[in-house]
Amino acid sequence: MTDTPNPAAGPDDVPGPEGPDGADGAAGAAGALPGTDEWNALAPLVPDDPDADLVADVDEDEAPRPLPAEPRGTAELARVYSALLARAGETLIEKRLDATARACELLGDVHRSAPVITLTGTNGKTSTARMVDALLREHGLRVGRFTSPHLHRVTERVAVDGEEVSESVFVRVYDEIEPILQMVDAELESAGRGKLTFFETLTVLGFAIFADAPVDVVVLEVGMGGEWDSTNVADAQVCGFTPIGLDHQAFLGDTLEKIAATKAGILDRNIEPTPAPHPVAVVGHQEEAAAEELEAQFGRRGVRGLWAGREFDVVERARAVDGQLVTVRGLLGEYRDLFLPLHGEHQAQNAAQALVIAEAFLTDPDRLGSVGDPAAAEGEAARPLDAELIGSAFSSMSSPGRAEILRSEPTVLVDGAHNPAGAAVLANTLAEAFDFREVIAVVAVFADKDPHGLLEHVRKFADRVVVTETLSDRALPVDELADAASEWWDRDDVLRERDMNAALMKAIDLALEDGEPGIGIVVTGSLTTVAEARTLLGRTGI
């Protein structure tokens, strides 16, 4: 492990001062901070807000004005967010756990304040985390959820009781823990090491908010990898592995085996004594190489794996208005005709995995041990979860920025696919769930991604493509993306626009010029791309 930040191009889904993939990174194209003249007007961090006049900047001699009960886009949040952005961004990876652990311990072991469920994988983590959250809340638990990235506001990353944490709580807890953060920074610097990073600090802040709430269970989404991700300071009782693919190879390795091995690190026990000595692994469908590596990693650690296609699976699916009906074979029984207001087979698989994670967490381990394991000790059989509660949880689901419809006539759909696997899932979802007679794609990607790998799948559903670039410093220049697109479409079907606003207007104009319904506009390429489109179309809620 190293304490030197890796300056290589980093993950697609991380906001920070370099302008990575998150709406705030998108808005701060030149590294500008909130509240400065350079901060772009598109910035979703501080949208038009009826509370803004109540929290306007005041003179230093003037007493601070009270925050509204649930403010949004406040000057106080801008202050805290600026402090976070001043730290090394999420593209500057510190492969270490001790710095985050030190801060958590000094704050009273906030990472041990509640049992933990951790999710890693390449695609589907956020959607699955939201589903697990909803299922546990339906069963009467107070849930803290930590996910990344955020689309519009940094506070989206931390949820309590299914709701984005209020800015007043976010600011208050940050101010309370800041002296400890500074103490850890000083210790690190005295040892010649880098201060706490943006993501490390946010992880500590998330744990502190959950301890402050308090919550009954914490659902964590790994930022990148697993072994050295700062979320791994907590020992999870249940560890979920969503589908693993090739992404972030500069940090995780260039093969599925290497990536899977790093992600398996969430099974390590990093607390002594550990509150979860016998973690259970719940594994979504995997490519063969990843599955074999995970199986080997489980064997080395003596961890039991519950596998999609073996211990659980999606039994049936049927299209429904605004979603699908799903039947899941879980560990404890079969749950039939669950309405899921999300599109695509992948979301059904996410739901099945989330359900089994909930089963594993809510079931007595002694009873769970006998499920599908004839060698286990005999005992009273565990009962299936309440089907009505599961149905209620799933029927309330949303997944912002994932096959999300923002408007109609013409239909505008956004999806944060940023790698070939994600684009393939998007293509399958559109073919299955939508009946567009023509599709116009709006695409913007990062320079460190594989544009051809993504465009190969976009070409399967898009008749024409409008290429552009986001406001991020990491954006692939529009001319380079246009050249790449011209290898997949006729040049006359590749249009280029300078920014997302112009690209969206061009696509909408093309659809309306046709004069007939049935043309869809699909915006994709990164979560920054999606965030900008959502903001421009007036959708900043999650």
From TrEMBL:
Its EC number is 6.3.2.17. It catalyses: (6S)-5,6,7,8-tetrahydrofolyl-(gamma-L-Glu)(n) + L-glutamate + ATP = (6S)-5,6,7,8-tetrahydrofolyl-(gamma-L-Glu)(n+1) + ADP + phosphate + H(+). Residues 120-357 form the Mur ligase central domain. InterPro entries: Folylpolyglutamate_synth (IPR001645), Mur-like_cat_sf (IPR036565), Mur_ligase_C (IPR004101), Mur_ligase_C_dom_sf (IPR036615), Mur_ligase_cen (IPR013221). Keywords: ATP-binding, Ligase, Magnesium, Metal-binding, Nucleotide-binding. Pfam families: Mur_ligase_C (PF02875), Mur_ligase_M (PF08245). Residues 1-53 are annotated as: Disordered. Residues 23-46 have a biased composition (Low complexity). It is an enzyme of class 6 (ligase). The keyword Magnesium applies. Residues 401-526 form the Mur ligase C-terminal domain. Belongs to the folylpolyglutamate synthase family. This is tetrahydrofolate synthase. The lineage of its organism: Bacteria, Bacillati, Actinomycetota, Actinomycetes, Micrococcales.
